[in-house]
Write a structure and sequence with these properties.
By secondary structure, the protein is an alpha/beta fold. The chain has a domain of about 220 residues: NAD(P)-binding Rossmann-like Domain (Rossmann fold, 3-Layer(aba) Sandwich), CATH 3.40.50. It has 12 helices and 16 strands. The strands form 5 sheets. It has a 7-stranded parallel beta sheet with strand order 5-3-2-6-7-8-13, with helices on both faces. A 3-stranded mixed beta sheet has the order 14-11-16. It has a two-stranded parallel ribbon with strand order 1-4. Helix 5 packs parallel to helix 6. It is globular. It starts with a strand and ends in a 7-residue tail after the last helix. The C terminus is likely disordered. Bound molecules: nicotinamide-adenine-dinucleotide and uridine-5'-diphosphate (UDP).
């Protein structure tokens, strides 16, 4: 396998072995960037590295380590001559963050601070941060633009909102030149190769992996959480974005940072499609993708859920020249293709050591 000799800058992707990170790595390499992954593999399997090599044609350098280990991050930045950091590493379950908030503040806020300190110490000045639409205050009407009020309703969302504030302060103090926080809406789907995607080992909380696992026979039916919302068919509406489109949004953000290196600011940018789909529409589209009806039952609302959450993606188009391109149907088809090969995926899982 070839080692990367990038035509462009080197990027460090913390959490690059995870669901979104692995897709970001693929798109960065395709765009000519060199990429190094730093991951502690707490929520990733090492076989993703073999899969990334198969997709990209390159051996992607990997550092096993925790982002809270500031020296390890700094040493990695220096060793690879990193120009830009994409900070994806962290914990992401809302429910877990409610039962174990300190773990979440420690990993997500503590980890982010360690990355910022390592960047300041080594003079790396450009950052893209994985934020989330969960930072927005619930209950707003219409689509959400980046000026919508921030007011997360759970510890996970607060870790994202806090780190955004910390990044703003760090940029203002000249401890960082430029940053973009990408507020993801609902990522779903998988790479069209079927080699990388998301297949949680624990029972999934998110709709798409749950539908896919139900279609694969792992659950008897999809439980639709409520059909009495003020939406066209009564079920919750979200802005599902294909993970490959999302990954391309990161490339656009990196390119923006490279092109505007001299300005000091921190941009917040939504990554969403601007289109909302209901839970019923998602089950129907997935049934279309797999060629049979995925069973479902309407049950009570899930506590804490809101009726509608859809992005206004205008700023991403205006500033980054990025828009989502892949359809909802494509997202379902790619997620299903990935799940169909998951049996094979599981057989070549390796044990992480070190
Ligand atoms: P993921 O769990 O698949 O990926 C996260 C990766 O980070 C994993 O590979 C994990 O092993 C690694 N990691 C976790 N803690 C670490 C640490 N302390 N040090 C080093 N590595 C660590 O999650 P994902 O869905 O790919 O999410 C990536 C980022 O995007 C996260 O920050 C998440 O909060 C954010 N995000 C995700 C979603 C979503 O729906 N998936 C939505 C909005 C924002
Ligand atoms: N949902 C559902 N059944 C599930 C999981 C989710 O009906 O098993 C609904 C949920 O109520 C919401 C939508 O699907 O309306 C998206 O939920 P998800 O957890 O994927 O994302 P989020 O709540 O973060 O938007």
């Amino acid at each position: 396998m070839k080692m990367i000799v990038p035509e462009r800058q080197w990027v460090l992707a913390t959490g690059g072995a995870g669901y979104i990170g692995s897709h970001v790595v693929v798109e960065l390499v395709a765009a000519g960037f060199g990429v190094v992954i730093l991951d502690n593999f707490e929520n990733a399997s090492p076989d993703v590295l073999t899969r990334l090599a198969r997709i990209t044609g390159f051996d992607i350098p990997v550092v096993r380590g925790d982002v809270r280990d500031k020296s390890k991050v700094a040493e990695t930045l220096m060793r690879y001559g990193i120009d830009i950091v994409i900070h994806l590493a962290g914990k992401k379950s809302v429910g877990e963050s409610v039962s174990g908030p300190l773990d979440y503040y420690n990993a997500n806020v503590g980890g982010g601070i360690a990355v910022l300190e390592a960047m300041r110490e080594t003079g790396v000045g450009k950052l893209v941060f994985s934020s989330s639409a969960t930072v927005y205050k619930a209950g707003g009407a219409g689509t959400l633009d980046e000026n919508a009020p921030v007011g997360p309703s759970n510890p996970y969302g607060r870790t994202k909102a806090m780190l955004e504030e910390i990044i703003t302060d760090t940029v203002a103090s000249r401890g960082l030149t430029r940053a973009i926080s990408l507020r993801y809406f609902n990522p779903a789907g998988a790479h069209h190769s079927g080699l990388i995607g998301e297949n949680p080992t624990a029972k999934p909380n998110n709709l798409f992996p749950f539908i896919a696992q139900t279609a694969a026979g792992l659950h008897p039916k999809v439980l639709i959480f409520g059909d009495d919302y003020p939406t066209p068919d009564g079920t919750g509406v979200r802005d599902y974005i294909h993970v490959v489109d999302l990954a391309r949004g990161h490339v656009a953000a990196v390119e923006h940072l490279v092109a505007n290196a001299a300005t000091a600011d921190h941009l917040r940018v939504n990554l969403g499609t601007g289109a909302g789909y209901s839970v019923r529409a998602a089950v129907a589209a997935f049934s279309g993708a797999c060629g049979f009806d995925v069973p479902f039952e309407v049950v009570a609302r899930r506590p804490g859920d809101i009726a509608i959450c859809v992005a206004d993606p205008g700023r991403a188009k205006q500033l980054l020249g990025w828009t989502a391109k892949l359809s909802f149907e494509q997202m379902c088809a790619d997620q299903w293709a990935f799940h169909r090969t998951c049996e094979d995926h599981n057989t070549d899982r390796l044990v992480v050591s070190g």
